[in-house]
Amino acid sequence: MAALKELHLEIEGWMEEKMGDVGGEFQGAAIDVVTPDEVKIWKEKMSKVLGNG
Residues 17, 21, 23, 29: what is their CA dihedral angle, to the nearest 10 degrees? Predict the structure, then answer.
């Protein structure tokens, strides 16, 4: 997990470098790690929202 975070920060740095100066706050990317149980709950909620459940 630590190696993944390190690579993510490195890639984000490359992206921001390519963009140059930008006004305001900018976040290039985010990584969210979720458990299988959280995915199941999300799927159930989405199913209700989309009318499939």
Answer: -10
All residues at 6 or more sequence positions from 31 whose CB lies less than 8 Å from its CB, including other chains: 4, 5, 8
pLDDT recorded at residue 28: 60
Q: Burial of 18 by CB count in 10 Å (0-12 exposed, 13-18 middle, 19+ buried)?
A: exposed
Per-residue model confidence (pLDDT) at position 4: 87
Three-state secondary structure call for residue 23: coil
pTM, full prediction: 0.40
Distance CA 51, CA 47 (A): 6
For residue 50, the model assigns a pLDDT of 92
